[in-house]
Specification:
- There is one protein chain.
- This protein is of the alpha/beta class.
- Helix content is 35%, strand content 17%.
- The strands form two sheets. It has a seven-stranded parallel beta sheet, with helices on both faces.
- Helix 2 (16-36) packs across helix 3.
- The longest helix is centred in the N-terminal third of the chain and has 21 residues, at 16-36.
- It starts with a helix and ends with a helix.
- The chain binds fructose -6-phosphate.
- Fructose -6-phosphate (F6R) binds at residues 46-50, 77-78, 91, 145-147, 151-154.
């Protein structure tokens, strides 16, 4: 195995529920470790079907185990554009419904790109989002999903390692996949504001979670294929702090080499 690939820690879990719980435990672990030292935590966060079980488990940990989100700052990867925050398709609303409305986070510390701004104000907003992350002291832990185009955030094919927060056009495959999460009869905007690959790679630790057989091909390309902008997630191979959590179906196309080193 190449030294490059050895940096990724890959764990294959029994099923989707167990994998989502393992991802939630990683987030909780970072929170508890930092709370024990009295330092705040900055989380990078994704939405999407994969994350539903993770946020459900974090809410359960808050309610039953007393896990606190006081002092946590959250930066989400992306938001559709144009998009109002109370629209049922919006990632603002999704994050509130799945996580933030149920935990003790300070609402002033919850950040997502603003999908309501006119085109001419987006560049300034994207720069401000990057500045806000830096002001918060960098992302301690990033929770990522992966799209079938290999995107992390909405960094579709062609997104290089140096990309930053910006407006992007969504790949037709992403629009088709994500339409399944949108209320029936509604369409998704063709654009989104997303953190760049470069923004994501600045996180200290990253957990990539992928679930289901429909992710198996892209997971294998991202973890074992060449590192280039055809598959944005392949850039995770060059980050030292990445843990990959997979259910068995998502791990189905990995080589024996990768699986042999998997926990
Ligand atoms: C969502 C995001 C995307 C998703 C990816 C997987 O905020 O940034 O990268 O993580 O599209 O989506 P699901 O989980 O719906 O398969």
């Amino acid at each position: 195995m190449s030294s490059r690939r050895r940096r990724l820690r890959v764990h294959v879990l029994e099923d989707a529920r167990t994998a989502a719980q393992a991802a939630a435990r990683r987030v909780a672990g970072v929170l508890l470790e930092r709370q024990a030292c009295n330092v705040p935590t900055v989380l990078g966060l994704a939405t999407g079907a994969t994350m539903i079980g993770v946020y459900g488990e974090l809410v359960r940990m808050h309610r039953q185990d007393g896990l606190s989100f006081a002092g946590v700052t959250g930066f989400n990867l992306d938001e559709y554009w144009p998009m109002s925050p109370d629209d049922p398709r919006s990632y603002h609303r999704t994050m509130h419904e799945l996580l933030w409305d149920h935990v003790d986070v300070d609402p002033a510390r919850v950040h997502l790109p603003d999908g309501t701004l006119p085109l001419e104000e987006l560049d300034a907003q994207c720069l401000a989002y990057e500045r806000a992350i830096r002001r918060a002291g960098a992302i301690d832990h990033f929770l990522l999903g992966i799209g079938r185009t290999g995107h992390i955030g909405f960094n579709e094919p062609g997104s290089g390692a140096g990309t930053r927060t910006r407006l992007v056009r969504l790949d037709a495959r992403t629009l088709a996949d994500n339409a399944r999460l949108a209320p029936p009869g509604t369409e998704l905007p063709e654009h989104a504001i997303t953190m760049g690959v470069g923004t994501i790679l600045e996180a200290r630790q990253i957990t990539l979670l992928a679930l289901g057989a429909h992710k198996a091909d892209i997971v294998a390309r991202a973890l074992e294929g060449p590192v280039n902008d055809e598959v944005a997630a392949s850039f995770l191979q060059v980050h030292d702090g990445v843990t990959v959590l997979l259910d068995r179906d998502a791990a189905a196309r990995l080589s024996p080499d990768t699986l042999g080193s998997a926990g």
